[in-house]
Design goal:
The chain is α/β, with parallel strands linked by helices and 170 residues long. It has helices at 11-15, 21-31, 48-59, 76-88, 126-131, 142-158; strands at residues 2-9, 19-20, 35-40, 63-69, 92-97, 108-112, 116-120, 134-141. The protein has a single domain (2-158), classed as Endonuclease Chain A (Endonuclease, Chain A). The termini are far apart.
């Protein structure tokens, strides 16, 4: 069985008692003990707190799998930080989805321990997490498990030498 809770950003949503996307994503990362799965269309340099939380999770030996749309087109600081995180931690894997067949990864998802997931419209940016009007959901239970499986499958299908961001350490 799964449960669903509405999330959002924007002042009108907050007045309606809807939980904010950013604090819930932070909560998921902080609570993760086993693994974190992320699908991301866009990270901006304002996502430094998000990346810091991922670095802290990696230091706790949490396995982190990130699939990002066109890593080569992300901001230079984001590319550098993600590659550095992957190089420094055996538990971190960063995979890029290229433009094969004209497709893009436009999803925005964070799954913690295959138990809880935030799925929504918000990019990992200041606008997406704070300023824009964004909608998301927090799902718990079987739906979160299934989302992690879908991410694993998408990462596996993207792991071609030409789409790998950085070679894993042997």
């Amino acid at each position: 069985m799964s449960s669903v809770q509405l999330l959002g950003t924007g002042p009108e949503f907050a007045r309606e008692g809807v939980r904010g996307i950013e604090p819930v994503v932070e909560e998921l990362i902080l609570s993760a003990r086993r693994d974190i799965h992320i699908l991301a269309y866009l990270f901006t340099p304002q996502a430094t707190n998000f990346l810091r939380l991922l670095e802290e999770a990696a230091q706790r030996s949490v396995e982190i799998r990130i699939l990002v749309n066109r890593l080569d087109q992300q901001h230079t600081r984001i590319r550098s930080r993600l590659r550095s995180l992957e190089r420094s931690c055996d538990t971190v894997e960063v995979v890029t989805l290229g433009s094969e067949h004209g497709r893009q990864l436009h999803a925005k998802v964070v799954v913690a321990d295959r138990k809880r997931a935030v799925i929504g419209s918000a990019n990992f940016s200041w606008g997406g997490m704070v300023a824009n009007y964004e909608i998301g959901v927090l799902v718990e239970g079987q739906a979160a498990w299934k989302m992690a499986e879908l991410i694993d499958s998408l990462i596996a299908s993207s792991l071609k030498p030409s789409t790998r961001s950085v070679s894993r350490r042997s």
